[in-house]
Write a structure and sequence with these properties.
Elements: H1 2-11, H2 15-37, H3 40-57, H4 67-86, H5 92-98, H6 104-118, H7 121-132, H8 137-144, H9 148-165, E1 170-171, E2 174-175
Length: about 180
């Protein structure tokens, strides 16, 4: 398998192999980063910072077959660092003044994103990975380094907190979170 060979070469200190390895994951990394920051420039910065951190740390990767999980975990932590540094303040009133009726879905999305930001970080991380990145519970558990039962508990509690924050089970007659778990 070419990927495993590239991982071994990267761990041995070959930068060309690491660059080729990152190219395999570049689109996935960008999409995930963009989902966290919703901004092209910040998403590209996060991908670049993740690549740098991963390059420095790849000799410490213990199991080659966990490379993608390891890389995405670095990316998630980097995205959270970026969000902590920026902490944008969204003024809902000014947004509502500029929004037309056709953009109701966008407002609901913003409200959901704001509500997610208010959650405890462990609940938010699990919800984002499970619902926005469509990772199965077992994969979320690996990324978060948590037992599967804890992930399920965080999913349930996080959904309950979001429902309280958004004042209800549904928006426009639709469930906020479909029952995937």
């Amino acid at each position: 398998m070419k990927e495993r060979s590239l991982i071994r070469q990267s761990k041995a200190g070959k930068p060309e192999a690491f660059e080729e390895l990152l190219q395999l994951y570049s689109e996935q990394m960008y999409k995930m980063a963009f989902r966290y920051v919703s901004n092209r420039e910040d998403a590209l910065d996060i991908v670049q910072e993740t690549a740098y951190k991963a390059y420095l740390a790849i000799p410490n990767l213990k199991k080659d077959h966990y490379f993608s999980t390891w890389l995405m975990r670095i990316l998630i932590h980097t995205a959270f660092e970026c969000l902590r540094k920026k902490r944008p303040q969204v003024d809902i009133d000014s947004i509502n003044e500029r929004v037309f009726v056709e953009e109701i879905d966008r407002i609901e999305h913003l409200q959901l994103m704001e509500a997610l930001q208010e959650l405890r970080s462990d609940y938010r991380d699990v919800l984002v990975l499970f619902y926005l990145h469509d990772l199965p519970v077992k994969q979320v558990a690996k990324v978060m380094r948590l037992p599967v039962g804890t992930v399920k508990t965080h999913l349930r509690r996080g959904k309950e907190e979001l429902k309280k924050t958004l004042k209800g089970d549904d928006q426009n007659g639709q469930k906020i979170f479909p029952d995937k778990a």
